[in-house]
Amino acid sequence: MNTIQTKDAYKMAQNFVEKGEIISSNNANNRIYKKYYHYLIDLENKNNTIILKIMYIIFLERYLGNKSLKTITKEDIYNYIEKCSNFNWSFSYQDNNKYQVKSFLNWSYQNNITKISGDMVLPKILWHQNSNIRTYYTQEEITKLLNVIDTKSKRGKEDYLIISLICYLGLRISDVVNLKLSNINFNENTISIIQYKTDNYLVLPLVEEVKYALLDYLKNVRPKEVSLDYVFITNTLPYKQKVEIKTYKHIVKKYLEKAGIDINGRKHGFHSLRHSFSTSLLNENVSLYSISTILGHTDIKSTMSYLDVDISKLKELALEVPYVK
């Protein structure tokens, strides 16, 4: 399955969740999707999470050729997983695919939709050790990455701003996509957001590297006289939030390779840039508390795990280093 097919499935799932559009030419399957959607809503999943979960089921249905999801057999699942193993997917993507299929089948079996459950077919999902390896890029590599982006073009200006918001502020891509003009205070040089993932309030400094990239984008790329508050919007009518930015992780790989940076055995998406940002703070002896605050973690233990912190450095990092007001 190539990048275009993946994007198409994501868009289909997105239109289903946000606009109520049908997914399948099989009416029975559409009814199943709706039931599964309401089940995920009841679990208080956010829309973006639901979209991703539905996307993986779309992958499965496409493999089955739009046959009824009710008739899925063990052989279908085994053959599908084998087929997916030949795709150019990362270990974590492969494992997440299995996990989402398993979860869907467990739900469908419990609701008498299928005759097999996820536990029957995939008794245990083992996350590959390699999928948990933390990847980060050095400051020198980040500089090279940013320098190869063509900031004379509109697309380059947008890509530069997206990547800068992650490299210099450590934002999640979900917070980049949902960034609003009202979040930005140019007078005080701050960005204030409610984090999409945690619902926590966060204030970050509007550092010059991001400020200039933002002003360049607003002046030369973003359509003028638009009432929408979102920073990233489409360039043509009807103007709307540019949610597809969430699928742009391939641009990181493109620019890393263009900069001549070795990505062999290293992750190369938005999250690797966020991890690089936090690691650079750690190397500058910024306190764990400050790093945890900047990343938006609710528990400092999450930050320790996130950074693979050496316990011997904890005493050294204990002193608070002001970074965020």
- Distance from N terminus to C terminus (CA atoms, Å) equals 46 Å
The value of Rg in angstroms is 21 Å
The total of beta strands comes to 3
Instruction: Provide mean pLDDT, rounded.
Output: 86
Characterize the structure shown.
The structure is a single chain. This protein has helices at about 5-20, 25-40, 45-65, 75-85, 90-110, 120, 140-145, 155-170, 175, 210-220, 250-260, 270-285, 290-295, 300-305, and strands at about 185, 190-195, 200-205. It is mainly alpha-helical and about 325 residues long. The chain has a three-stranded antiparallel beta sheet, with no helix packed on it. A hairpin with a 6-residue loop joins strand 2 and strand 3. The longest helix has 20 residues, at about 90-110. The model is unreliable at about 125-135 and about 310-325 (pLDDT under 50).
Characteristic key phrases:
325 residues; mainly alpha; three-stranded antiparallel beta sheet; 3 strands; 52% helix; globular; disordered C terminus
Brief overview:
It contains 14 helices and 3 strands. With 325 residues, the protein is mainly α. The longest helix is centred in the first third of the chain and has 20 residues, at 91-110.
Topology:
Blueprint: H1 3-19, H2 27-42, H3 47-64, H4 74-84, H5 91-110, H6 118-121, H7 139-147, H8 154-169, H9 173-177, E1 184-185, E2 190-194, E3 201-205, H10 208-220, H11 250-258, H12 270-283, H13 288-295, H14 300-307
Helix pairs in contact: 1-3, 3-5, 7-11, 8-10, 8-12, 13-14
